[in-house]
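Action item from last meeting closed. Structure (340 res):
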């Protein structure tokens, strides 16, 4: 079977997806009109033309501004539901999504409005589309510790809906130690932890996320390749990296996909996974990310399947759910083998 068709049908698990990053220009216009919000663009095409980024910050500036169209619980529901329909097309069977409460509470939107909209869509996704999911709440690292503590406080009454806390936004100048105390409190409250580290920032951010924030996964982490000892330690511990290939080329972490190290890291035995990060901004969803890797780097279908196996192992679901997904994936692979 040809590789694009194999990729499309391969069961996939997404572990690094910002729900605010799924806001397509068409929906941005729809919500702007519905909520009477002025946009600095006149057409969705103009929006797409503005998506020429030089680094992480140049993207974040546009991304936070776009989130202004999200006001009501139904807006967050519609955003999440549209993403789930894309998951269905791409055969994504499980997704763990990030949301950034501070992007919304800073504009006067209630924490509850945001999480209730997202949660209701995910529940419908489980029931109507058979897509399982988890929610991870991220702290914006360019804001201060006090704001993160207040966000954690607001999350406590939604503990049953949130599996983990994470750390995103501008990595340079905002190292993990800034949030060591708030992550400690989150751990005491029973949340798992993850953090963006080693996307643009140095390997010390990966070490510090592991040691100070006690993370269960590193988001991005591709800069680990600068440190041979760290690469070996990550392989040994099977600490997952949630890598986002199209994001990394769009934000110039790698100049081209041919220079991306994801396949190299896979072949060195690391628990690397493929994810879409902010698909409305970076040129594609899960299938597009797998295809982009396969088009530019040498990977077998077995390698591609290993990304899905790794993602199941790295997910925040019960062992029995993991076993169910592994069985589903392996039976798909047996079926594919008998066709080829
Ligand atoms: N890095 C940091 N913060 C983010 C990203 C990212 O890739 N996407 C959305 N917020
Ligand atoms: Zn991200």
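Sequence:
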């Amino acid at each position: 079977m040809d590789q694009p068709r194999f990729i499309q049908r391969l069961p996939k698990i997404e572990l690094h997806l910002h729900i605010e990053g799924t806001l397509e220009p068409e929906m941005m216009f729809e919500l702007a009109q519905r909520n009477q919000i002025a946009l600095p663009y006149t057409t969705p095409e103009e929006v797409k033309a503005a998506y020429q980024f030089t680094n992480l910050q140049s993207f974040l500036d546009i991304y936070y501004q776009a989130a202004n169209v999200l006001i009501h619980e139904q807006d967050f529901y519609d955003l999440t539901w549209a993403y789930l329909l894309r998951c269905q097309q791409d055969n994504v069977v499980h997704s763990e999504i990030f949301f950034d409460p501070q992007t919304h509470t800073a504009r006067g939107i209630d924490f509850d409005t945001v999480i209730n909209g997202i949660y209701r869509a995910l529940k419908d996704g489980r029931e109507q589309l058979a897509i399982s999911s988890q929610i991870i709440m991220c702290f914006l690292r360019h804001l201060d510790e006090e704001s993160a503590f207040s966000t954690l406080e607001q999350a406590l009454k939604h503990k049953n809906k949130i599996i983990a806390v994470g750390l995103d936004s501008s990595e340079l100048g905002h190292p993990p130690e800034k949030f060591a105390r708030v992550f400690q409190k989150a751990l005491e409250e029973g949340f798992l932890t993850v953090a963006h580290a080693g996307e643009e920032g140095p390997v010390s951010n990966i070490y510090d996320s592991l040691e100070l924030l006690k993370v269960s996964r590193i988001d991005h982490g591709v800069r680990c390749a600068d440190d041979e000892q760290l690469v070996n330690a990550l392989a040994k511990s099977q600490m997952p990296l949630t890598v986002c290939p199209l994001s990394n080329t769009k934000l110039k972490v790698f100049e081209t996909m041919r220079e991306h190290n994801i396949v190299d890291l896979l072949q060195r035995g690391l628990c690397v996974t493929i994810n879409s990060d902010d698909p409305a901004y970076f040129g594609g969803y899960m299938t597009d990310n797998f295809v982009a890797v396969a088009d530019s780097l040498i990977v077998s279908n077995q390698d591609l399947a290993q990304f899905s196996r790794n993602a199941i192992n790295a997910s925040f679901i019960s062992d029995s759910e993991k076993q169910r997904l592994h069985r589903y994936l392996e039976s798909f692979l047996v079926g594919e083998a008998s066709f080829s």
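Note appended to the action item: The first strand starts at residue 12 and ends at 18.
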